[in-house]
Specification:
Elements (H helix, E strand, L loop, with lengths): L4 E4 L9 E6 L14 E9 L25 E4 L2 E6 L2 H5 L7 E10 L9 E2 L7 E4 L1
Antiparallel strand pairs: 1-2, 2-5, 3-6, 4-5, 6-7, 6-8
Amino acid sequence: MAQVITWNPVFPIASDTVTIYFHANEGTGGLAGYTGDVYAHTGVITDQSTSSGDWKYVKTNWGVNTADTKLTRIAPDEYQITINNIRNYYGVPSGEKILKLAFVFRSGVQVDGSWLEGKDTGETDIFADV
């Protein structure tokens, strides 16, 4: 079964650099065929999170475009983003355990008045285990 994201290394630890590959035609497919810039809305699930919806250390507010959350297009409907040292990238204190990276991908601009979103099947957030 195809996945919305894959990552390398497959079993990262908090101090690792990890590359996330976003497959826009998987999951909801909300960004399939989109040719503009794509950004990650991203944070982490830690041992302090109360649920999978309790993201911590979110990089930007929704709709804010920054260089460190911009994905690079590597093929049609295929993107990547490299996170250098997971703990440092998100600013997670050393005593807090990072369990998952959390993502929703979105268009760089609104299209017909709304953001295009890349989410997992069922309109759910996307997670990568750490």
